[in-house]
Structures are given as C-alpha cells and as structure tokens.
Amino acid sequence: MVQIAEMFPKQCCRKCALFCGITISFIVLGILIITFRAAIYKCIISKIFVLQADSYTFDMWKTNPLPMTLKLFLFNWTNPGEVLNSSVKPHFQQMGPYTFDETKEKVNITWNDNNTVSFYHLKRWWFNQSKSNGSLNDAITSINPTSLSSSYGARNWSYFLKNGLSIFLSSIAPSLHVTHTAAQVLFEGYEDSLMNMANRMPTFIVGSSLPNFDKFGWFYTRNNSETYEGHFNMDVGLTGQLGKLYSWKFMQHTPYFRDKCGDISGSAGEFFPANLNKESLVNFFSPDLCRYMQLEYEKEVDVNGVLGYKYVAGDRLLDNGTKVPDNKCFCNDDCMPYGVLDVSACRYGTPAFVSLPHFFKADPYYGSIIDGMAPREDLHDFYMIFEPKTGMPLKVAARIQVNLLLQPVDGIRLFQNVPKVYIPVLWFEQIVTIPSEFTIFVSLLKNFESICIAAGIVCILCAVVLEAFCCSRACNKPILSREHALKEIVPLTEKAGFEA
After folding, report:
1. Nearest Cα to 354, choosing from 416, 265, 435, 286?
2. How confident is the model at residue 435 (pLDDT cuts 50, 70, 90)?
3. How many CA atoms lie within 13 A of 128 on its CB side?
C-alpha cells in the first residue's frame, strides 16, 4: 500500500485521492476473493446441499423438476406348448416399449430433531401412445406367476402336502402359461382364480406369501399410491451427508438378506457424496429390490460440456460371491451364476430374479437355454454419470429386467418335468439427462475456485488501470503506458503472495 501512496504527488488533487481510495479497494477486494475462495465455496455449498423447508434445493427434491418417462418392455412367450420338449428352447419376443409419463413427489414430509427428514414417495403414470411401440391391448403370453409361486414355495414340502397342492393346482390353475393384455399385465391387473382362492385360505396351503390383492399385475396398486415404496428416513445434510438413508419401512436392516447384505445403506436416490474418485463406489438403496446397489467407475465422459465420471453395474452388483465374497450373503438359497440376483424374499416368495436387460453382462448360461435375447451395451447397461467434485448426477440410465425361475418340482404334476429356465418377463428403462441450463450451474460450482482467482486478478488489474488512467488525467500527468502499468502491478501481486 505504501507503494501505491508513492504514486501520487503531495499536491495531488482531490479527484486523485478519490481514485486512490477506489484503487486500494479493488486491490483489497481482489486479494480477499483469492485468499478466501475456499471458504466462500464451502459457504455456498453448505447453503445448496442442505435440505431445508425454505430452500431452493427442497423444491427440486420435493417434486421432480425434470420430465420423466418410464419405458416398459414385455417378453411374449411364443412357444409355451413346447415347454416339455427338451429339444426346443423357449422363445421370447420383446414387445414395446410401452411408454408412460411419470411424476414423482415426496409426501407426508416430517422434519425430525436428529437432522433427518422422513417421507413417502407418491408416483403417478400416464400411458403415452405417441412414444410407445404397440398398444396396451397387445396380447402377452408369459409364465403363470401365481401357480409358479405356489410350486416354488412348496418345493421342500413333504410328499403328501405336495400331492395335495398338485391336485389343487390341476383343478384351479391347470396351465403353465397365461395370456393377457399389456395393460392387465402392467398396471390394470387381472383376476386370478388361484390368487382369489389363496386370499381365503391359510398361506401354507398354497405355499406363497402373496399379499391380499384382488388382482395380479406387476405394477397393480402402485399407480397413485403414497405407501407402496414405503417410509424413508434420510439425512438433511447438516453433517455433510445429504441424502444418506438411515431407515426404510422403519427398518435399519431388512429381513430379506443375511448379515450386512440386509443393511439399509447408501443414498436415498437423489443426492450423492461429493469428491468422487475413480476408486469410489456409488452406493444407493433400491426399494424395488429391497437392497442396496453399488456401481463402479468405468470411464470419463462428457455430458453437455461437463466432464463426468461414469459408474456402471459391475462385480459389486452382479456377482453372487464368486468374485466378491461379501456378496455371498445376497444368496438366499443356492448362489446363481454371475449376473442374476435373487430377490424372491422381497417379492412375497415369488421366484423373482433380476438382471440387466437381455441378460447383458450375465453368465452365458442364461442366454444359452432360451432364444430371443440380444444383449447390447448401448441399450441394456445400467449406469450413472456424476460430476465428481460436487457429486451431482449428470445422466442416469436405470435398466432392470425381471425374470421368473421355472424349475421341476417333484410331486407337483404341473411342474414335474419342466426344464430349469429363467423366464424373462419384463424390463424397464428410465433415462434422465441434466438439461443444459443446469450444466451451466454445475460448471460454475466445479470451477468456482478458478473463477475466484480470475476475479481477484481482474480486480487488481482494474485497480492498476484506474490508477494509471484516471488519476494521471486528474493531476494532468501523462497517462501511463501499458508497459508501465504492468510494471506497477507485478511487485504488488508478488508482495501479496501471488504470481503475476
């Protein structure tokens, strides 16, 4: 500052003194911005990534700000009459997509004293014919899920109990397959004689723990339901863990998987940790699978001009204990070959197994015993792309396939001689990409410290130019040349601890 004062002669006019004060203010401002850039960034982040009832973040979290669509693909079983013919593979034809517009919001929100928030998900879907390939009136033939569930639940019964169930199934549900419209299979539901009977009888008689539904449909009762996905409790971010899930359905550990595999852990699905690296695992909880899911780093990608890290479904998600020993507790019975996950305990005892669509990345075994699968990375992978510094999602491609296990069950005539096959039933796809206006905001956060340094240097340069131009003119002195101005700022910036 002493050097700045020496620039001005003792007889300098009042205008020059004013310009001198402004010059000093610019230099101080520039130094402060550069020095405290990290603290400023931390303050901004604490305001953005803390969930409060009156915050901008809350509005985006409460009601999804981006238009969402759900694409559903169904598999039509074209040769069910050949199921007992060992020389003919079951053949499946993909139908769809049947596209639905979706809205999602949080309801029954409760702010808790322990810096957490509790809520339910309310989701609604509307069929969008213009974006669909096919009609909801399309006929879909598939395995009979209720009789299959009954036989699966009875596979370890005594001979006499299984014989009784065999007679019961032969009279109530004599066919392995059923045909219904796409609308009935998905949201509308259809009446099922076995289910109606099961609702009036003790569970053990039919060997299933299906809930008391009056119809069967894969998404039946889910549309416009506040409670279907259950109660969630997550961190609001005051401790730097925004979105961390603490409980689901009032449980901190599910009964569906053993040991640590039953833990309620990871993100609730909207917010993720900052400062991701290439060794990080993206961990989030899926209420549909009743378990946490982990994605692994694959590569760097560009999304609307922002560099992101792509995390994909890999060994941590798809393995059943062979490559990742910690995953063995996800096996409820025998562990399957790589790529298919057992979620039967989560699905009311139905022999439900999930995979990536068309058994992408799965062991070749699954595709070798059926026809009609055509796995492709660009169509069937599950991945999420994040800006690593902020942890903000740039693009999400969620894809999961539901399969039902058909296997022989001794003592039950309907299933006595069937092959062991994982029957593909349906798969869904939901892709969301951050809009370009949001990527500008993400870029600002990502480059905030560099922007602060640049802004600080600009302030200091402005101060020198102001001194050189305005003050010199006010005192009728020659205007400093550009070279002179640079000579003046270099000692100042070096003295402040910065390079010119």
Report:
1. 286
2. confident
3. 15
Query: What is the enclosing helix (H) or strand (E) of 35?
Result: helix 14-35
- Given pLDDT bands bounded at 50, 70 and 90, which one contains residue 208? very low
What is the distance between the alpha carbons of residues 111 and 104, in angstroms, rounded to a whole number?
20
Cα separation, 352 vs 485, in Å, equals 75
The dihedral over CA atoms of 139, 142, 146, 150, expressed in degrees to the nearest 10, equals 160
Helix (H, G, I), strand (E, B) or coil at 265: coil
Contacts 24+ apart (CB under 8 A), 291-299: 291/254, 291/256, 291/257, 291/261, 291/262, 291/330, 291/343, 291/346, 292/263, 292/264, 292/265, 292/266, 293/266, 293/317, 294/266, 295/382, 295/383, 295/384, 298/383
**Higher local confidence (pLDDT), 49 or 405:** 405
Q: Tell me if 112 sits within 8 A of 118, measured CB to CB.
A: yes
Round to whole Å and give the CA distance between 386 and 402: 27
Please report the pLDDT score of residue 15 as a whole number.
60
Kindly provide the residue ranges of all beta strands, DSSP E only, lying in 129-176, ordered along the sequence: 139-143
C-alpha 56: how far from chain center: 21
Residue 317 structure tokens? 């998600």
**CA atoms within 13 A of residue 422's CA, in its CB half-sphere:** 27
With contact defined as beta carbons under 8 Å apart, do 181 and 187 qualify? no
CA geometry: angle at 303 spanning 297 and 307, to 5°?
A: 60
Percent helix, percent strand, percent coil in the chain, to nearest 5: 35, 30, 40
CA distances from 402 to 72, 75, 83, 209, 373 (A): 11, 10, 20, 19, 14
Residue 484 to residue 490: CA distance in whole angstroms: 10
Q: 434 φ, ψ to 5°?
A: -65, 130
Instruction: Tell the residue number behind the tokens 């869904």, with chain if given.
Output: 428
For the chain, give the mean pLDDT: 84
Residue 37 and residue 452 in contact, taking contact as beta carbons nearer than 8 Å: yes
Would the pLDDT of 402 be above 90? yes
Q: Closest Cα to residue 142, out of 431, 444, 421, 354? A: 421
β pairing state of 116-127 and 92-111:
antiparallel
The H or E element spanning position 175 is none
DSSP letter, residue 184: I
Gap between the Cα atoms of 387 and 159, Å rounded: 58
- Six token digits for residue 314: 């890999």
Residue 338's contacts (CB-CB under 8 Å, 6 or more residues apart) are 318, 319, 320, 322, 323, 362, 363
